[in-house]
Amino acid sequence: MPRRAPLAVAAALCAASAPALAQDDALAEGRTGTVESRDSAFLQAVAGTEVQTPDGTVVGTVEETLIDAQGRPAGYVLAIDGFLGIFDRDVQVPVSSLTWDESHYVTKMTETQLENLAPWDE
């Protein structure tokens, strides 16, 4: 019985290290890691993404994604009316008011509608 204990410990250690080895393989093959180590079609952060009008005028940037009680995206906080991040103000818009266009969001709202929104206070 004493001879089996070291074998059991060795077997347990091998089994426990298998997931770590699989993760190392995935990293080496580029199948996991940060967004910078994957192609641009995978994932990217929403914060800082430009928001444009349909004619291409930049009206703001996404500051935050808001979620509902079930954890689903429900809206965005946009920074608008600023210059180089100075004197901007935050407003909240519903998810349905923005559409994705490859590298930025396009708003369905006019610049006037965005400017007339109440400021967002957390």
Task: Provide a quick synopsis of the model.
The protein is an alpha+beta fold. It has helices at residues 4-28, 111-115; strands at 50-52, 58-67, 73-80, 89-94, 98-100, 105-107.
What percent of residues are in strands?
25-35%
Helix content: 10-25%
Give the overall silhouette.
globular
Tell me the structural class: alpha+beta
Written account of the structure:
There is one protein chain. It is built from 2 helices and 6 strands. Mean pLDDT is 77; it is low at 13-23. The protein is globular and about 45 Å long. The protein has helices at 4-28, 111-115; strands at 50-52, 58-67, 73-80, 89-94, 98-100, 105-107. A hairpin with a 5-residue loop joins strand 2 (58-67) and strand 3 (73-80).
Ordered list of secondary-structure elements with their pairings:
Layout: H1 4-28, E1 50-52, E2 58-67, E3 73-80, E4 89-94, E5 98-100, E6 105-107, H2 111-115
Question: What would the keywords be for this entry?
Answer:
single chain; 122 residues; alpha+beta; 6 strands; 27% strand
